[in-house]
Amino acid sequence: MAGLTSTGFEAKRFNDILEAIKTRLRSTFGSGIDTNEDEIVMQIVNPVALEIEESWGSKLLYDAMNPAAAEGPALDNVGAITATKRLEGSKSTVLVNATGNEFATIPVGFQRGVQDTGELFENLILRTLPAVGSQPLQFTMESIDEGPIAAIANTLNQGSLPSGITDVVNPGDATLGTLDETDEEYRISRKVRLQALGAGTVVSIKAALLEVSGVTSVSILENDTSLYDANGQAPHSIRCIILGGADQDIIDVIGATKAAGTGTVGTESGTFTDPVDSQTFPINFDRVTEIDIYVDVVVTSKGTSYPVTGDQDIEDAILALIWEPGGDVTLPTLQNAVTSIPGILAYTLFFDTSATPVVDVTISIDTDELADFDSTRIGVSS
Given this model, what pLDDT does residue 23 score? Predict the structure, then answer.
């Protein structure tokens, strides 16, 4: 049976609509009426049946408030009801060095292209070069498009330069942006965020902080005892360790989500203003300290399957590794990245926190630290 039933909405199919119209025609004009497809009456009936079939598309309206079936704007409306909006995409950013004549300017909208890919980054603020002895001028450019727009160190070097500017190039890799969540990604993340809405819990605070624009990593240490813990953390307190995001945005989220009576600890401090009665409260948190990691790989024996781009492929595989705060840098993890490239018969792999590494022992990373890898600190040769 088509229509709204006890098990949901079922749209009537075209053939069912056509047969229903034929039945009505026979009931009205008698069983002798010819309903073969090539008869003139059916030339009229078929377009009508198609129009009726389209009207059954109201199933989309039925599904509009069902988070498992709604799509696009309808799914966004479902999220708005539960205050869990779709995570929007962000643009990639890259730090560049500019050199040239004293007081030469880089205008708003100046664009620089990435070698090989042609992806564009642009300057958002008028820049003026200092005296030559104080150069280069460092500033951040933003990708034209949202998403993970890659710009490996020294590859943002395409396009004409403004008058008086001799060079604009990136000394390090770009920080990758993100794309808008797809409907499927949004359904999953919305469910996870709703499960974490119990205000005051570590899970809910972390979920809320990950919603802050620019925040890419959050870890929270909780001491729910009445004594200082082994880390020296105060009783009944939380320590939020965060990478990215603006200070005040972070402070506002911690202030709005932490439980009453729970203290906050950390070296970063600010003030949360209660939006209801304008009371103010001090909030503290910690920033993740990024630890520069240097890697040196020498492929000493290659097979015929080792690609022409093998050295770059190894570097890319190392850069693709995902690290969390407190995650130690280990030899097996780096070895897995290196050996993911075919044709390597023998190699040496060293890594350290200083240039020209000659050891391969585990680098211990504290809970408020994050191992940071950059193409300028990875050397691969074969």
Answer: 82
Gap between the Cα atoms of 242 and 238, Å rounded: 13
Per-residue pLDDT, 30: 76
Dihedrals phi, psi of 186, to nearest 5 degrees: -65, -40
Identify the CA nearest to 125 among candidates 104, 136, 110, 146: 110
pLDDT per residue as tens digits for the range 337-358: 999 999 999 999 999 999 999 9
Dig out the tokens for 106 from the structure: 């880089």
Q: Distance (Å, rounded) from C-alpha 69 to C-alpha 7? A: 15
Query: Cα separation of 243 and 257, whole Å?
Result: 19
378 contacts: CB under 8 Å, gap ≥ 6: 294, 295, 296, 297, 315, 318, 319
Tokens of 304: 């015929």
Question: For 195, phi and psi rounded to 5 degrees?
Answer: -65, -20
β-sheet bridge partners, residue 296: 350, 379
Spatial distance between the Cα atoms of 122 and 110, rounded to a whole number of angstroms? 5
H or E, element range at 264: strand 263-264
**Number of other residues whose CB lies within 10 A of the CB of residue 210:** 19
The answer to whether the beta carbons of residues 197 and 190 sit under 8 Å apart is no
Instruction: Tell me which residue of 44, 147, 128, 129 sits closest to 90, measured CA to CA.
Output: 147
Could you tell me the two tokens for 379? Answer: 């050397």
pTM summary value: 0.53
CA 189/CA 183 separation, integer angstroms? 10
- Residues 235-263 have pLDDT tens digits of 999 999 999 999 999 999 999 889 888 99
Name the amino acid, one letter, at 97: N
Q: Give me the residues of the chain with pLDDT under 70, please.
A: 1-12, 34-35, 37-39, 51, 53-65, 82-83, 192-199
pLDDT for 274: 84
**DSSP tag of 331:** H
Three-state secondary-structure class, residue 247: helix
Residues with Cβ within 8 Å of residue 348, at least 6 apart in sequence: 296, 297, 298, 300
Give me the amino acid identity at 169.
V
So what's the pLDDT on residue 197? 55
